[in-house]
Amino acid sequence: MVGKEERMDPVWDDLDRTLGQLFMMGFDGTSVTPQIRTLIQQHHLGSILLTAKNLKSAEDTTKLVYELQKCAYDAGHPVPLAIGVDQENGGVNSLFDEIYIRQYPSAMGVAATGSSELAYEVAKATAQEISSCGINWIFGPCLDVLTNSRNQLMGVRSAGDDPQEVSSYGVASMKGYKDVGLATLGKHFPSYGNLEFLGSSLDVPLITESLEQLSLSALIPFRNAIAQGLDSMMVGGCAMSSAGLNVMHACLSDQVVDGLLRTDLKFNGVVVSECLEMEALSHNIGVEGGTVMAVNAGCDMVLLCRSFSVQQEAIAGLKLGIENSMISKARIKQSLRRVLNMKAKCTSWEKALNPPGIGYLSTLQPSHTALSTRAYNSSITVVRDKNRLLPLSNVVEAEEELLLLTPLVKPLAASAASRALSETLVAGSPEPASWERSSSVMSGERVFRELGRSLARQRSGRILHTSYTANGVRPIHENLINRASAIIILTADANRNLYQHGFTKHVAMICNMQYSTGGEKREKPLVVVAVSSPYDFAMDPTIGTYICTYDFTETALNSLVKVLYGELNPTGALPGTISKSQKLNQSKHHWLVEAFNEERDSHALDNLIKTVVEGHGGPPNQRSELSSATSNSFLLQNPDVIEAHFVVRNSSTQALYGFCSTYFFTSTGTGAIGSLFVDPGRRKLSIGHSLHNRAIRTLLQRDGIKRFQLGTRIPNIFLGIPSGHSAERKRLRTWFANLGWNTALSRPVCSMVARNLREWAAPDSVAKSLKSAPADFDLVYGWEYSGPILDHIKTNNRQGLAEVYKLALTDPTACSIIRAKRPEDDAIVGTVVLYYAHSRLAEYVPALRDFGDSAGGISSPVIFPGAAEYSTLMQGLIMLGIKQLRSQGCNACLLDIVDSDGNDDGLSAMGFEPMHTFEEVSCDAATWTMVPPL
Length: 934
What we know:
The longest helix has 23 residues, at 357-379. It is built from 31 helices and 33 strands. It is 36% helix and 19% strand. By secondary structure, it is an alpha/beta fold. It has four domains: 24-366, Glycoside hydrolase, family 3, N-terminal domain (TIM Barrel, Alpha-Beta Barrel), CATH 3.20.20; 380-421 and 432-581, Glycoside hydrolase family 3 C-terminal domain (Rossmann fold); 594-747, 3-Layer(aba) Sandwich (Aminopeptidase); 749-919, Gcn5-related N-acetyltransferase (GNAT) (Aminopeptidase, 3-Layer(aba) Sandwich). Mean pLDDT is 86; it is low at 411-443, 581-587 and 930-934. Residues 15-341 form the Glycoside hydrolase family 3 N-terminal domain.
């Protein structure tokens, strides 16, 4: 670093050459214009600001930057030009190229990812891209804290309203820029985070916070960035008014620059003024006077964005200030040293005249594309989804219509210059200006039109798309709302564009008043997406499903489409203090649930089962219910059962993260969830929640649905909520209760096993009671006995019984039925199914395979409700079953689907021990039809 007392190179004794280093200027045009050439050659201009209006593509930008540097080199400049751009990402990018320059989230979008490491990666990638084109100074990071987040032009350009978070992401970004070799610039000191606007363009925005208030909040990111080596600082053109502080323009005030920034915050880098062409400043003070005041206040560089005549005026004003002794030469040399010190760190003639260019950008493209996608995917935030509308496949069938309503908005301006230029565009022009076409953000109408196309490409149903304006809800909107099955509304800074807020609330009211075809009130699904500031409806719980994207670039909206259709699990969170202070409910993740495809998913399901078995949470001596299950165990292929199974999977690796099986038993009108399990390593991510929602929605659509049940008797894997392990039982009961199941009315059931049948003997008490049993027992097999047996089991309304018995009756070589009949009239009062390991029924009882081929099973006992001696009949049926199995060489007997509310002791006396215990839960279908739509 050049010391203050060290003599400078004699070249800087030329005052004109020295003064040129104290200006940064912009110009109109995509090539070197006569005006900018004059400023470089005759006025020795040392720094240039390029904006979107200058930059057509990466290749053209590289040529332009080289031409500017070559112009300075040929003019004899001792050091290269400092060439800066605004490249904040999100909606504020000066340089955009569809091929070589990637789009990344805004500062707030990056903060929503929760990763300062990602902020560093994004900043470094951004710096690499613009540095490849020869740019050596980035106007970032943005260090403003949104201390008034509701009414701010800064919006998503800030990382949020928490000074520590803004500081963390700002410093991470700064380090990313510096590691590539760019000079950094913090903005907008002392903070644009709480400005009051008085209405007129001639009125300067006002900061009313005191210095004490600023130091406790807004100044924290600036202070920390300075401590970490920030190269330069832009001081804003805002006014400040509070006790002991009355400043008309911060960048013209020595109290702010030399006092607050230099002395209090110990900043010794380059201070850049806000553009002195701003209307309020030039009208109130004048550019000549403003330039003198800025340098006297402590600014090292004066920014003038575009007007050649104004730029010449500023140079003349600075010279006049020196000639009139208003500015000392020592003061000028002090600023020169700072500027030269910054340039020495970010550029040299070797570097300036040999930019990496397109060749290097080509090598960066693959990794930067992946980073862009990852960053946007990680930023999308589902703030609320009360009615579980996501993914949209939950509420919109393939053939139904989806309505997209979007506001008419302009792109965010990348700088003061492009903002001024945009104001000159003719309203309603069919084609955007050249600078707009080359900027990162298309006009709102164009980018939203592309969003509509993206939504349409993802579904077979029609997308209806129209815009809305300050004219409110028109008849065309009402007609489309009535016609569509679901509505998506986009808002962009609704707190500043109040018509968007009113329009959205009006549409929400219409949706809330919708009625189903049966006359039942059923709210029409509405999704509100804030594509800029997340504060639009963050605190409005009446908007039930609310998503934030933080900017409306194409890349952001592509990620939004993935979230809406369930291809992407949204992990973003509202940055800053809003979610903490208001205790917003964080939304659950919503996974894409797909129908199980046997050919595609069977192998993956087998792997998932293995993973679940190895990671089950029960005691070591307790086997998982899935121990011997395979993918085939869930496929009944029964004409009397409508089955539909669902998976959450990784479409890239084909791995399954979760599985749910559903069955609709037409004989009883019962819809059952037969299994629901998730990869243990991916629990608590709402995979099970998403599967459950899809299962319920599917079963509700079955004609004749009367009741719901957790657990099925066939396939015999999960008979209900597993309850063998007390801690796991409590967790699962709570989980299902939160989903709407009344677990207080559950019925305990279990599977039991008797081992070593060859050594088994009937207990004397059982043998004695059977002698007085009020029934005769026999064993039958074959369909010819089906009539009376099927009539008998109708006395029990448990789902799946008929299917178990029908399987046994149609498989006489491997199954039989033991009957208990009243002697006086041969009426059946009890039955049980007997089956062997080679039977078809055994395919749906995986637990039987745990005991090998020498095992048999007793299943589905049904005792007539009015029969006397219930326990005696049950014991008789089971004892005769065991004797039959022993006679066929079986060494173990699995007794499945037994009520465990009083029968356990008698069965234990017969040699059975519990294997798996469950809580069977059932409810009327009306329980689910009365809840909000899924």
